[in-house]
Design brief:
The chain is α/β, with parallel strands linked by helices. About 55% of the residues lie in helices and about 15% in strands. The chain folds into 2 domains: about 1-175, NAD(P)-binding Rossmann-like Domain (Rossmann fold), CATH 3.40.50; about 180-324, N-(1-d-carboxylethyl)-l-norvaline Dehydrogenase, domain 2. It has an 8-stranded mixed β-sheet, with helices on both faces. Strands 3-4 form a two-stranded antiparallel ribbon. The longest helix is centred in the middle third of the chain and has 23 residues, at about 175-200. The chain starts with a strand and ends with a helix.
Length: about 325
């Protein structure tokens, strides 16, 4: 089977390596030509996944046409703010392949989930969503990981699940696409807040309270869209929430920690070396939608006021802890 991975960040590269090691013919599309050349020559993605060797049957491409040629499954792993524009570039070469969304986020301009954006641009129903507590740094080192593949089509979900499953990467198949995508997006907002707790030295007790509030918001927002309770309290919900809020690998937790140290967004981006944290655009999208539809989201509101309105971060945490 030929598989295309769109997006050569740490997660896209990790998925490409996992699939190549299973024997699939994998092409990894890189937005930057120089990155594609470096991966091909060094057989390593030194910017996003240093120290992990890339199999010989994985080819890095800068041409979208070449990356998609004869592929049977497309994994989209670009940041949410670039998903629609990337799909527009995919469309001329799209040939009814299964499309897997490996991006966690909500589109700000439309409040649409990533699978909905894929459906818009490619006019297909052969869509699956990959989500869960899946830090690339651990999966790439074959550390035990559980994940979820959700699809409205059982056959599509099984094909994708079977492709990904390994002894160290266990995949559960669900049909709650809405719930999986909502959980994957909203946990990033909570992770930023727990990072603030760490940055301000508030301790584990306060952090536990923030995580609990984040779980409640995830459930409230998800139920508005018809998400299943079992999804929220499963691997794609609570599981991903815990990993993102507690892990040193979490970009969103890192951003919150740096905010607490009064660092600017520009400085934080430099420290992330080109990696993207989905929590910031997701906060804007979720806040504006929840305000319009009267969904009570106090944690999201405080995050929005800090990031986009310049509210003092210590005051925001004080206000938040008074609510709990």
């Amino acid at each position: 089977m030929k598989i295309s991975i769109i997006g050569a960040g740490s997660w896209g590269t990790t998925l490409a390596i996992l699939l190549a090691e299973k024997g699939f013919d994998v092409k990894l599309w890189c937005r930057r030509k120089e990155l594609a050349r470096e991966i091909e020559s060094k057989k390593e993605n030194r910017q996003y996944l240093p120290g992990i060797k890339i199999p010989k049957n994985l080819t890095a491409e800068n041409s979208m046409k070449d990356a998609l040629e004869n592929s049977e499954i497309i994994f989209n792993a670009v940041p949410s703010e670039f998903v629609r524009s990337t799909l527009k570039n995919i469309r001329p070469y799209y040939n009814k392949q299964i499309v897997v969304s490996a991006t966690k986020g909500i589109e700000h301009s439309t409040s649409k989930r990533m699978s909905q954006v894929i459906e818009d641009e490619l006019e297909t129903s052969k869509i699956a969503v990959l989500s869960g507590p899946n830090h690339a740094e651990e999966v790439s080192r074959k550390m035990p990981t559980a994940s979820v593949v959700a699809s409205n089509d059982k056959k599509t979900g099984k094909i994708v699940s079977d492709c990904l499953a390994t002894p160290y990467f266990k995949v559960y198949q669900l049909n709650d696409v809405v719930g999986v995508e909502i959980c994957g997006a909203l946990k990033n907002i909570t992770a930023m807040a727990t990072g603030v707790c760490d940055g301000l030295g508030m301790g584990d007790n306060a952090k536990a309270s923030i995580i609990t509030l984040g779980l409640m918001e995830m459930n409230n927002f998800g139920r508005h869209f018809g998400a299943k309770r079992g999804t929220v309290y499963g691997i794609a919900g609570v599981g991903d929430l815990i990993a993102t809020c507690m892990s040193r690998h979490s970009r969103n937790r890192f951003i919150g920690e740096q905010f607490a140290k009064n660092k600017s967004m520009e400085d934080i981006r430099k420290e992330m070396h080109g990696m993207v944290a989905e929590g910031i655009p997701t906060t804007k999208a979720v806040y504006e939608y929840s305000s319009k539809h009267n969904i009570e989201m106090p944690l999201t509101r405080q995050a929005y006021e800090v990031i986009f309105e310049g509210k003092n971060i210590k005051q925001a945490m004080k206000d938040l802890l008074e609510i709990i």
